[in-house]
Write a structure and sequence with these properties.
2 copies of one chain form a homodimer. Chain A has 425 residues and is of the alpha/beta class. In chain A, 46% of the residues lie in helices and 21% in strands. The first copy, chain A, folds into 2 domains: 2-231, Aldehyde Dehydrogenase, Chain A, domain 1 (3-Layer(aba) Sandwich), CATH 3.40.605; 237-386, Aldehyde Dehydrogenase, Chain A, domain 2 (3-Layer(aba) Sandwich), CATH 3.40.309. In chain A, the strands form 4 sheets. In chain A, strands 11-10-12-9-8-13-14 form a 7-stranded parallel sheet, sandwiched between helices. In chain A, strands 5-4-3-6-7 form a 5-stranded parallel sheet, with helices on both faces. In chain A, strand 8 (237-241), helix 10 and strand 9 (268-274) form a beta-alpha-beta unit. Strand 17 (411-422) of chain A pairs parallel with strand 14 of chain B, so a sheet runs across the interface.
């Protein structure tokens, strides 16, 4: 009986969150861009002038994480510093300075009968954002959602709870201060996993769920969600070094793609090398990678040139290591490289290094990934680097939005049609 | 054992369809727009010059439908005539004349580091189109899919099987004749429902399923599909007559929206009238509607002005009648009308009749439907009428595409990035 009652309570809790979010979404349809930018700037100022409360809350999280034996890397992700808060504040100011994503006329025409047809950008509705660790993501997600007219429900990791509560308090206080609905940004503040399941079963309240974290989290969300999911499971990104590549450039790009930040989704996980340049390229680049601590796993031909390395398995070719490991394969042709990417890739980001125009054209035409990059690092598939500004996530799906998702990707459109009495004949 | 073997066979059949579609999708990435237009024009010519085979096949379907006791209306939907084939052929020519939807640069920038970023339109992949009755839809769907670079798997209604087989033969023969992959348009030619279920469980082969038919069909597909679904369940479209409306115009729009073609999704199903004009408007328009054979069902206040009519229930307000029935409600205000639409509507198409700018602004800002129309009939929410050309369906979802879906809506995009050795620092 206690369980049933707890479930009922959880259900009412979810329904309450959902109703408030819907009401906030509706209220946001009538507010001005100036009000929302005002909110962003006020939040930025709070972070700059009153960091202490947040830093104190964050210190409690960091202490808790130590107690739970989290790795130093995870604790570092969790930690907020005055400098990191200044970065977060700068991000809010940047979002405030971006053009309003709503009300843009994406297309228009006057029909022969005089009807004026406008395709106008509008918000998506209510977003549910599920994420792990980094508390500054709370601010980015809220800023992008509200500026694009969407109500947001946040569900952060429990290890960042105190930090998130403190940040959420600022976001909500400043919403109310500028006359925006406080429920435009809500936070799930009870730890039960059942709240997530409850909300994922409520398409009447949630329009889009954005899970950001490990593949396990994302698969669970995708499994349960009865609404659209914006996601990528993995980033198994490839660098293909063509027969015509500038090999010095190829080495530079590969080292950057693999080593500059190996734990992120746009880092390279696999190297494909054209057989004609394998003998020249592999020994040199192999030594450079090994000097950086990268473990190589290769196909039999690769191992001819790099005899000390382990053999790559099928699992290696499919893996997103998120670590200093790289699978390597020698291919007979550009087309074999493309087929390999089709077989093992995750449709996230692939790069080709080539001097030949036709190779670049064929690679960009045939490779079906969110970003296809010629002669640059895979690490550039990122909202900031591609010029979209802050992003709430990267999508490898082909529906709605693909690649980094910023302000524009959190909108859809409706047709607004003006007539003066037209009827159909 | 026989069942198991039959299931295995069905499964191999689905996998074979899927593999062929994927290979065709891939081959389509390299063909020119000219080849695809050539194909469309050759198909159009075949319909014009060799209609006999199609008409004979269609006659068999019509005869079969008679034998199964289908209604005259359904038989009429099924029937092809030389005139209807000329219409279908004109539609193919129109699609051929439209701009290529692929390779458009939707956005671009040169980043400070010199990277050239292009957001380029690309096909969605493999489409699975499930539809009922009208065989000319086969041609539209194939034309739109292939022109937008997508491979298509067709699954028509069994009552139109012979017609669809004959049309599909032409489509496929002409694909091969111009050097396009014949599998770019495949047809499910065995009747088992299990094939549909099989394909809906294969996201590795199908990117988008488009069910077109009754709400039951669409809900079944949505339930089973493990990939994106482009759909609308219902079109419960409203006409709201504001206090400031030109009542003569309101009557004209309402009669058109309700009566011009009551069986389609953008026909009006519900009338909302501001209380200030109810006494003037309702008796007159009620008589006009009744003269056209429309059955009215109203709220208590409506029945004061139209005493003979039945009372509208909650079910009436939610209904998509697809017939000469109209629910009617008198509302106190514009905001009550908007709330009623939020409660009972299907997010498809709503119209307001008003002379007041502020009412039009508030209605178009707050009503969250695929098309919001000021002073014109709801019947204009249609690909042809809004200027998109032929449509493969109408979406009431907010993801990917909303409203009528034509060529552009069957594309997505990828980022193509060109550099000369850039790495991230």
């Amino acid at each position: 009986m206690i369980l049933a009652s707890a479930n009922t309570d959880l259900n009412s809790y979810c329904v309450d969150l959902g109703r408030r979010a819907r009401a906030a979404e509706r209220a946001l349809r009538l507010v001005s861009g100036a009000q929302k930018n005002d909110w962003l700037l006020r939040c930025a100022r709070r972070l700059e002038t009153q960091p202490d409360e947040i830093l104190r809350a964050n210190a409690r999280d960091v202490e808790g994480a130590r107690g739970q034996g989290l790795t130093e890397a995870l604790i570092d992700r969790l930690r907020l510093t005055p400098e990191r808060l200044r970065g977060a504040s700068a991000a809010l100011r940047e979002i405030a300075s971006m053009p309003d994503p709503l009300g843009r006329v994406l297309d228009s025409s006057v029909r022969p009968n005089g009807l004026q047809v406008h395709k106008v950008s509008v918000p998506l509705g209510v977003l549910f954002f599920i994420y792990e660790s980094r508390p500054n993501v709370t601010l980015d997600a809220a800023a992008l959602s509200v500026k694009s007219g969407n109500a947001l429900i946040l569900r952060g990791g429990k290890e960042a709870l105190h930090s998130n509560v403190a940040l959420h308090r600022i976001l909500q206080e400043e919403l109310l201060a500028v006359g925006l609905p406080g429920d435009a940004v809500q936070m799930v503040n009870i730890p039960e996993r059942a709240v997530v399941s409850g909300l994922l079963a409520m398409p009447e309240f949630i329009d889009l769920v954005i899970p950001r974290g490990g593949e396990g989290l994302i698969r669970r969300v995708e499994e349960e969600a009865r609404m659209q999911v914006l996601k990528h499971y993995r980033g198994n990104c490839h660098v293909y070094v063509d027969a015509s590549a500038d090999l010095e450039m190829a080495g530079r790009i590969l080292l950057n793609a693999k080593c500059q930040r190996p734990g992120v989704c746009n880092a390279a996980e696999s190297l494909l090398v054209h057989q004609e340049v394998a003998a020249t390229f592999l020994p040199t680049v192999g030594a450079l990678l090994q000097a950086k601590g990268v473990e190589l796993r290769g196909c039999p031909r690769t191992r001819q040139y790099l005899p000390g390395i382990a053999e790559a398995s099928e699992e290696d070719y499919a893996a997103e290591y998120l670590a200093l490991i790289l699978s390597v394969k020698v291919v007979d042709s550009l087309d074999e490289a493309i087929r390999h990417i089709e077989t093992y890739g995750s449709k996230h980001t692939e790069a080709i290094v080539t001097r030949e125009l036709e190779a670049a054209r064929r690679f960009t035409a045939l490779v079906d990934s969110a970003a296809v990059i010629v002669n640059a690092s895979t690490r550039f598939n990122d909202g900031g680097e591609l010029g979209l500004g802050a992003e709430i996530g990267i999508s490898t799906d082909k529906f709605h939005a693909r690649g980094p998702c910023g302000l524009l990707e959190l909108t859809c459109y409706k047709y607004v049609v003006h007539g003066d009495g037209q009827v159909r004949t």
